[in-house]
Amino acid sequence: MLKIIEKPRLNFWQIWNMSFGFLGIQFGFALQGGFMSRIFQTLGAEKDAIPLLWIAAPLTGLLVQPIVGYLSDRTWHPTFGRRKPFFFIGAVLSTAALFFAPYSSALWMAAGSLWILDASINISMEPFRALVADKLPDSQRSYGFVVQTLIIGIGTWVASNLPWMMTQIGIPNTAEPGIIPDSVKFAFGIGAFVLLSSILFTIFKTEEYPPEDLQIFQRENEESKGFFNGFKEIFKNIAEMPMVMKKLGLVQFFSWFAFFTMWSFATPAITEHIFKSTDTASVAYNDAADSVGNYLGTYGLVSMFFALILAFVTSKMKINRKLVHMFSLIAGGFGFILIYYISAPWMLHICFALVGISWASILSMPYAMLSGTVNPKQMGVYMGIFNMFIVIPQIVAALGGINFLYKFLFGEEVIFTMVLAGTSLILAGLCNLLITDRGATHDV
Question: Record's InterPro entries (predicted)?
Answer without folding.
Answer: MFS (IPR011701), MFS_dom (IPR020846), MFS_trans_sf (IPR036259)
